[in-house]
Design brief:
Order of helices and strands: HHEHHHHHHHEHHHH
Distance between the termini: 71 Å
Largest sheet: 2 strands, antiparallel
Shape: globular
Strand order of the largest sheet: 1-2
Number of strands: 2
CATH superfamily of one domain: Cytochrome Bc1 Complex, Chain C
Radius of gyration: 23 Å
Bound molecules: protoporphyrin IX containing FE
Number of helices: 13
Structural class: mainly alpha
Strand content: under 5%
CATH class of one domain: Mainly Alpha
Length: about 350
């Protein structure tokens, strides 16, 4: 052993065998299919968000007077600023899409069932964290649409009975959007939510390591072949290839469709059309369809059902003969989300 290797061994007394044992976790063969191993995609995109986000934060200014100009500087003058901002924007879009697809895979394969209920609940918090990261990030640009989107969001919160006023105040740091609001969004976006997301992810992955992923039986499976493969290096290679593909895709999207700038926020002029980011279209359309308090409470109710779904599903399976009711409920849910999102995307008001 070389002197340097010996020095490392003395400082960190972990043998190569122990490392091999820790990383050689056998992974079921179905994890070779992207649909089943989708959880790695948002994790990878999150790392990209942290790196590009730190670089953007070097130039971003949180005051309402200079936020917009600082984003313009990043987009038009800072070296590679346009690229970093565009990759950050596209990776946010892909991360939200990947989290939703991963959740759909977990849902439709019933992988949330006993004993994985807690990991489903942690996943729901991960989903909410990811969406709130998207919302706060969008607000930082201080464009007309992001300013009015945040104002509409705060008014939505306000219509929640009892706690609404408090939540609105907490969000805006006052009754209305003011000079302290942006700093609040920035601290949430760049510190509180990413740290919360990392904490949740550590627990999510720890539970997966403890329980292993759900095993499935496939009709076309060859019984004579091994049922598992090694996490390291086999699964790691797949994830690395995926990472490379995502980097190429993100660079292509950033170059072909770079992030642009809308008009600067003007608190005195309400734009004719207010739209949030695409991932809130579904809630936005729902709010337009029903009166305020009902729309908000029903949205809260749907989120509550999503959190508690593993327990509701267990009761349906125990007490009725509809063993696969979750599949039909899921299909109706997904179709409703697609329909409301498309509707909001296609009409001006
Ligand atoms: C930032 C977001 C998330 C990341 C990075 C993540 C990561 C992962 C990873 C790497 C796995 C291993 C299996 C796979 O790759 O599919 C996994 C499994 C799992 N995830 Fe997530 N996840 C996230 C969000 C969610 C959400 C939103 C839910 C559901 C509400 C969820 C529920 C689960 C469950 C129940 C499993 C176990 C699946 C099984 O046993 O087959 N996760 N997650």
């Amino acid at each position: 052993m070389s002197a340097i290797a010996q020095w490392f061994q003395d400082c960190l007394p972990v043998s190569p065998e122990v490392i091999r044992e820790m990383t050689n976790e056998p992974v079921p063969n179905h994890m070779k299919r992207w649909w089943f191993a989708l959880g790695g995609t948002p994790a990878y995109l999150f790392v990209i968000q942290i790196i590009t986000g730190i670089l953007l934060a070097f130039y971003y200014e949180t005051s309402t007077g200079s936020a917009y100009a600082s984003v313009r500087y990043i987009t038009e003058e800072a070296a590679f600023g346009w690229y970093l901002r565009s990759v950050h924007k596209w990776a946010a879009t892909l991360m939200i899409a990947a989290v939703v697809l991963h959740q759909m895979r977990v849902y439709f394969t019933g992988a949330y069932r006993k004993p994985r209920e807690i990991n489903w609940i942690i996943g729901m918090f991960l989903l909410l964290c990811t969406l709130t990261l998207g919302f706060t990030g969008y607000s930082l640009v201080f464009e007309q649409l992001s300013f009015w989107g945040a104002t509409v969001g705060a008014n939505m919160a306000d219509s929640v009975p009892v706690i609404g006023g408090f939540v609105k105040n907490l969000m805006l740091a006052g009754e209305t959007y003011n000079s302290r609001t942006l700093s609040r969004f920035f601290v949430l976006h760049a510190a509180v939510l990413p740290v919360a997301l990392i904490g949740l992810l550590v627990v999510h992955i720890m539970i997966i390591r403890l329980q292993g992923v759900t095993e499935f039986k496939f009709k076309d499976e060859d019984e004579s072949k091994p049922k598992t493969f090694s996490f390291f290096p086999d699964h790691m290679y797949t994830e690395l290839m995926l990472g490379l593909f995502l980097m190429i895709l993100l660079s292509a999207l950033a170059t072909i469709f770079p992030a642009s700038m809308g008009p600067e926020a003007d608190p005195l002029t309400t734009p004719e059309v207010i739209k949030p980011e695409w991932f809130f279209y579904v809630v936005f359309r729902w709010l337009k369809l029903f009166p305020g308090t009902f729309a908000i409470l029903s949205t809260g109710f749907v989120v509550f059902i999503m959190f508690t779904w593993p327990f509701i599903d267990a009761q349906i399976r125990k007490r009725t003969r509809f063993q696969e009711a979750s599949v039909w409920i899921g299909i109706v849910g997904v179709l409703a989300i697609i329909a409301l999102t498309m509707w909001e995307a296609l009409v001006a008001h």
